[in-house]
Here is the input.
Amino acid sequence: MNQFGRYFRVTIFGESHGEALGVIVDGIKAGMSLTLGDFEGDLARRRSGAPGTTPRHESDLPQIVSGVFEGHTTGAPVAILFRNENTRSSDYAKLIDHPRPSHADWVAAQRFEQYNDPRGGGHFSGRVTLGLVAAGVIAKKQSSSISISSEIIELGGSRNTTDFEQIISNAVRDGDSVGGVIECRADGVPIGLGEPFFDSVESIVSHLMFSIPGVKGVEFGSGFAGARLRGSENNDPIIDARGTTATNNSGGINGGLTNGNQIVVRIAVKPTASIERTQQTFNFANRRIEPLTIGGRHDACIALRAAVVAEAALAIALTDLLQHTQK
Amino acid sequence: MNQFGRYFRVTIFGESHGEALGVIVDGIKAGMSLTLGDFEGDLARRRSGAPGTTPRHESDLPQIVSGVFEGHTTGAPVAILFRNENTRSSDYAKLIDHPRPSHADWVAAQRFEQYNDPRGGGHFSGRVTLGLVAAGVIAKKQSSSISISSEIIELGGSRNTTDFEQIISNAVRDGDSVGGVIECRADGVPIGLGEPFFDSVESIVSHLMFSIPGVKGVEFGSGFAGARLRGSENNDPIIDARGTTATNNSGGINGGLTNGNQIVVRIAVKPTASIERTQQTFNFANRRIEPLTIGGRHDACIALRAAVVAEAALAIALTDLLQHTQK
Amino acid sequence: MNQFGRYFRVTIFGESHGEALGVIVDGIKAGMSLTLGDFEGDLARRRSGAPGTTPRHESDLPQIVSGVFEGHTTGAPVAILFRNENTRSSDYAKLIDHPRPSHADWVAAQRFEQYNDPRGGGHFSGRVTLGLVAAGVIAKKQSSSISISSEIIELGGSRNTTDFEQIISNAVRDGDSVGGVIECRADGVPIGLGEPFFDSVESIVSHLMFSIPGVKGVEFGSGFAGARLRGSENNDPIIDARGTTATNNSGGINGGLTNGNQIVVRIAVKPTASIERTQQTFNFANRRIEPLTIGGRHDACIALRAAVVAEAALAIALTDLLQHTQK
Amino acid sequence: MNQFGRYFRVTIFGESHGEALGVIVDGIKAGMSLTLGDFEGDLARRRSGAPGTTPRHESDLPQIVSGVFEGHTTGAPVAILFRNENTRSSDYAKLIDHPRPSHADWVAAQRFEQYNDPRGGGHFSGRVTLGLVAAGVIAKKQSSSISISSEIIELGGSRNTTDFEQIISNAVRDGDSVGGVIECRADGVPIGLGEPFFDSVESIVSHLMFSIPGVKGVEFGSGFAGARLRGSENNDPIIDARGTTATNNSGGINGGLTNGNQIVVRIAVKPTASIERTQQTFNFANRRIEPLTIGGRHDACIALRAAVVAEAALAIALTDLLQHTQK
Here is the structure.
């Protein structure tokens, strides 16, 4: 289902080239000020324009349809709509017979029996994350005691940020794409959020992180590197009565519950599957292996625009946890 | 909530040193043969005994309390109980004042206001995964078309399996612990399971994997390594009408849906937090930093016993997806 | 949460006098034809106009925003929007100090701390059932093997349909309102839908029926009258191998599961709380009991327009049950 | 699924003649005292013995398996087990071919393809409500500010309590059964619980009430009788700043939310389907209509024992609402 959250519930809808896409957010407290201006910052961070991002430009102006009265939330669901404007569906005509490698084209056709909207990936498009970012803005406002930040810590295999620009321009030059790793941090998270086992903070946060198109890995604290350490190296000594720890290899989570330290989560974003460079794929019409050159407009590195989406995911997950942690 | 699954629903309960622990599994089809013998194999794999596992030995005999009549499932919930036998609670007396670093002790005390059962971690204990393994056995039977396997591919930082035994014995010798990486694979998974976005296969599987104590990272296909590749290297070319791909960097999942190829998921298991080696922690009673030497009985490497738990998690997740994928 | 359904999931949003209201329906099978024409019939039945219905006239034209491509459902969520046009908010100014008896005004103000949209009841308005009717249309199409009908069997205390017109006009004349009882029937329902206990068909259907504003009672089969019979009178003898019963006092449901006979459910709809006739209420501003005469525009009998809403509720509930009944 | 509740979650399991049945309750606050003695009162009220109740006597001693440490809840799930002792399965042998009219026998056989446990109705048995009563005890303790009571207000068609004893003994004498109406009341309920639409208090409470075997009708406040009144008669005037109303035809609920007044809900309990008196049914073996005389042991009036179950249902529903009402 296109929905996340038990108490702070986010429902997304829409397609890349449909009339509009959007989000419904339920479980918002009444009386919170909410205006279009609140969305500008994060939507701008998600918007394309920088080198390595798609030449498809959308104004992405949100329209608040419900749940706000005289500038404040009413406690009813907030519906936000984004009209699609700059659509060029013609680009996608040939993709029905030529599924793009590592894209949803082929499975979507199987699953939805050719009825999936093929234009720009339809509902599978990363463009649908617009609603996620809008919901993230509301989550950040509702959980204002928590501050969330993100950083691209690895791009095209390099952890040296000064290389990033060059790595991107090389990828663009080669009609290719690169992946990256985004680190998100949350400060000011209360102690004891989450549940042991099935609703651990890692479970809830990863559930949402893996719903971002292109994310293929999620780790907390020392993560995969921690699995190479010994317990004596990886354990975080508690140094005061507030539970502060000398190190944070646990990423702020023990036994599935927040421990009051900074939450640290990293996500692996794969290189964009859409590349201009010629690839081989199967033509379902003539049943031959054929070269495919993808036109259309796409990002050489989705990690660039995914950072703010990941922040939104973390904000939404923590806001839901804040509400469904048993008192 | 101590529960996972929308259609194939698993509910766990119990504590490490309580009277019993167990699991309720709902959504089981009627008429499936189910006997105690079905559980033996996987429970044996989870049981301690091998070098590096806890000296606490439990027979772990399951007791089927409901949902089975004359050797077949009835369609009603199956309740399975495991009695705790070999408990030595005295070991844990001092942990209330001396929270074990990187353990749930401290957060549990905060969250449950000192009422958490402190014996062996109470409900936070890895022992509660017994119920998960039992549910996994049922999931594997119900989804018999899917075959699931697992392998420890990294231990204490080494990917050379011939080193594993030595790495473990060194850790035990040093009163320390090591972590590892487990890879799970699922073959025979139908095409099109999952949903784009919030119920992506990665979301559902990771949700459950991260509920296994000690898991701090989850990746699919090429995962974090894939984020270092270019699109032209990471993409999986489709080579036939069945959607078979030349490579499987996607780990069998595109756009959140299964693509018919093998599902590959890896989990990072941290080194056991409980180590005999002396650590520093905060004594909440006298408010001093004090050395802590953990008695009790524990594993030098939980990854050894977690492999079958991870298989269970994957089996449960896929069984639930098999049922809640819209037709 | 403003949502119903596990597999066939309906999410509503909007306010009586907001910009728009609507519904998101998820879990729709791909490839079902869906056009605006499909909605006309049921929306017309819900629309006002007949004697006893509000003089507020809305065209209620649905706008399909997503989930449909070239006239067929894609398998992605269908979002439907209705613009509010004929709003006269001024009518509602004084209701903040003068809560209407038996209305949501007072509790909404308490719950949402004065932030609830007071115009026409805001999100509490019966107008929000527009989305429910639209979702019902989709449910009826998806569960086309089931045929659903409804009838007003009691109005203002009379079961004689020939009296209904007079009863309504008298109520209007007196500036008063009347209630009624609606009976819904479903034919062609497969055997075995539902679950014993918490997801009994009665549980699921009543859950949705009681979400229709004004419904204060729900009964199945012989219902309250059956409680006055003896077992020998109320039991339904099985007369053939298909399980057909001589009588249908069970309303098509035994042990919480459908038995293959017609499902019969009746709902009690209270008389409209909004009446022109002067009532006493408490003025929160001056803390006096004061007479209240409600202007605005309302129905003298909401049962008239609720019948199609009840059909929608039954269709949605059965469609969800069709999908979440374990196979 | 055999489960109710979002925050205060109740999961039941077991069969009438299986080894044991029970309940898991999750979402219990930590530190609440809980002992076996807490269950005695309500379990005794549910137990048989009075005229008109089954001669099958069970001690119904609860066993607390988990979630309680040193007499207090730990915050982990509480599992409670009841062993079945006094089982006489032989009674039910012939019911496979001879489904009891208005019983689950026939639909259960269809749904679960003959694998349903036929002994005493298996999981469909009213005996499974034992777990519901136990969960109700915990709910009442957790929501101690709310006081819940119940009363049988109608039996065999009479509202004169002095007739009840005679009505029962006549039914027993005739080998027949009678139904009844139970009224439950809750005092001390905070204002504003519930949600407009799908999680209205009526929706949540009726969902649970209709999961009690034999319940075929639910009404709140004036209910079906209110549908015969005019708005001017049915409306509840607000008489003070606390929202107190002069009458309570709304049953304490407006717009789906609690209004602070007493919650009043009535349920119609059908006459026991199992009667000794000879009935006609279909013999699936020889495909003939045959007379059926039901042996076994049953209640002449399940309403007698259902009152405490209905109280439990109301307590569970309100406890869940107390936790999942958005703050």
Notes: The radius of gyration of chain D is 21 Å. The longest strand of chain D covers residues 147-155. Chain D touches chain C through 104 residues (CB under 8 Å).
